[in-house]
Amino acid sequence: MAGRAMISLSAARSLLKPQNSSVLASRFGHEGPAFLVYDFKKGREVVGFGVNGEECYADHPIFPYPAIRYKRIEGPLIALKEKEKGDWKLLSKDEVKTLYRASFGQTFVEMENQNTGRWRQIVSQVLFGCSLSLFIFWLMDQYIPRELPETLSLEHRQKMLKAMIDARMEGITGISSKWDYEKNDWKK
């Protein structure tokens, strides 16, 4: 059964491998914002290594340079890319922003300040844990008897103390050092 599950899991992974324009939500560890990995290879220029060497686009501050451009270079962007090859001082601010948005989907500030909603998940998990622990406490209170064990009764503790004194346990610094064996009473 385990072998069959592993085969189906690997088959599922091969089916889930991003094809054209699918979107995968990913999270790397517990730190940093969640990010989206876009796989739109068709018509995108490969410009770097990216997150893991695959040709996909990812907005994340830890991996600032995606493997492919965010937008296809077509229409008005073709002329702008030709103008980009010349002197950058001739480009207006809007043209520079358009070129940036062609390469990147978000700025660093947008990536770091996006509201991921992760706090809702954390609060719900904490509340669920508290509810579960209170429910278990209630079950224990209802169904587990509250009788103390016999070893905690006064008679049993006195018998154990007498046995320790008779055995002269810890005669130098312990309980037997405080007992007067000639008078059969505690030392004063």
UniProtKB/TrEMBL annotation:
For biological process, the GO terms are: mitochondrial electron transport, cytochrome c to oxygen
The protein's annotated pathway: Energy metabolism; oxidative phosphorylation
Keyword Mitochondrion listed? The answer is yes
Q: Which CDD domains match?
A: Cyt_c_Oxidase_IV (cd00922)
Which keywords appear in this protein's UniProt record, sorted alphabetically? Answer: Membrane, Mitochondrion, Mitochondrion inner membrane, Oxidoreductase, Transit peptide, Transmembrane, Transmembrane helix
Q: How does it sit in the membrane?
A: Single-pass membrane protein
Which residue ranges does UniProt annotate as crossing the membrane? none
Which is one Gene Ontology cellular component term of this protein?
Answer: mitochondrial inner membrane
Q: Organism, per UniProt?
A: Bemisia tabaci
Identify the InterPro entries for this entry.
Cyt_c_oxidase_su4 (IPR013288), Cyt_c_oxidase_su4_fam (IPR004203), Cyt_c_oxidase_su4_sf (IPR036639)
| Pfam entry (one) | COX4
* Name assigned to this protein: Cytochrome c oxidase subunit 4
Summarizing the function annotation, the protein's role is:
Component of the cytochrome c oxidase, the last enzyme in the mitochondrial electron transport chain which drives oxidative phosphorylation.
